[in-house]
Amino acid sequence: MPELPEVETVRRTLEKLVLGKKIADVTVLWPKMIKRPDEVKQFIDAIIGQTIHQIERRGKFLKFILDDYVLISHLRMEGRYGLYKKEEPVDKHTHVFFRFTDGTELRYRDVRKFGTMHLFLKGEEEKSLPLSQLGPEPFSDQFEVGYLKNQLMRTNRKVKVALLDQRTLVGLGNIYVDEALFRAGIHPERESNTLTDVEIKKLQEEIVETLKDAVAKGGSTVRSYVNTQGEIGMFQLELFVYGKKGEPCKKCGNEIEKTVVGGRGTHYCSTCQRIEITPN
């Protein structure tokens, strides 16, 4: 599933392609993707004639800012946007078409059909799901050491599980939690409320730096991710632990291990990320 760096990369490439375009028509071939409003016809009727003015990101969600509405899009596992001329061949896994007045069309392709779209009147999008319960952005002023400490000290959940909770912090998924924990030297199975002040400060710093580095590299292409222009990310070349089971650790040479934490495959180095608690 695309995480913050991949969604941010898609947002940036989409901005170059569709800002200022006016929607002339919409076709939805897989109605289950439209979660709000209840009727697909209402969705279509509302956004015909609207212009795309801005594309924002909230966690792993894309926000298409229109004249009167905000379209919230989640790519899930395989979702992908692309801009085409209307005469270009259509892939069989393309399920939503936004046709513009200039003759181009934005197509949404999703092999697994897990992607979702919600339409809200502008200003209403943060008041309801899927955005209403999201935590702060990692690059925001709200995500500082004191906030992270407060969130972690209130739970005995494994630290990886706590960081995957989008109510704690948005945008992190399996790849970047594993990478940030490795960089911070924290074992993913540590109980959150056992982390020391020093460890929490290091973790906050490494979450931000890991995500910044990944955004700069266009995200990670581990399976099928490409950006809107079909380009792969390059941060997978920088990964320390994710997907590296059995390979030597880049720092100590110990073999990278894999376990399951909170139902998610989890990669770590038992030498660099000791489970024992160290004092402040």
Outline the secondary-structure elements.
Layout: H1 4-18, E1 23-28, E2 34-36, H2 40-47, E3 54-58, E4 61-65, E5 69-74, E6 80-85, E7 94-100, E8 104-109, E9 116-121, H3 145-153, H4 159-164, H5 174-184, H6 197-216, E10 257-261, E11 264-268
Helix pairs in contact: 1-6, 5-6
Brief write-up:
The protein is of the alpha+beta class and 280 residues long. It has helices spanning 4-18, 40-47, 145-153, 159-164, 174-184, 197-216; strands at residues 23-28, 34-36, 54-58, 61-65, 69-74, 80-85, 94-100, 104-109, 116-121, 257-261, 264-268. The radius of gyration is 20 Å and the shape is elongated.
Strand order of the largest sheet: 2-9-5-4-3
- Span between N and C termini? 36 Å
> How many domains make up the 3D coordinates?
2
User: Could you list the spans in which at least 5 consecutive residues all have pLDDT below 50?
Assistant: none
Shape: elongated
Helix content: 10-25%
Query: What average pLDDT do the residues reach?
Result: 93
Number of strands: 11
Class from helix and strand fractions = alpha+beta
CATH class of the largest domain: Mainly Alpha
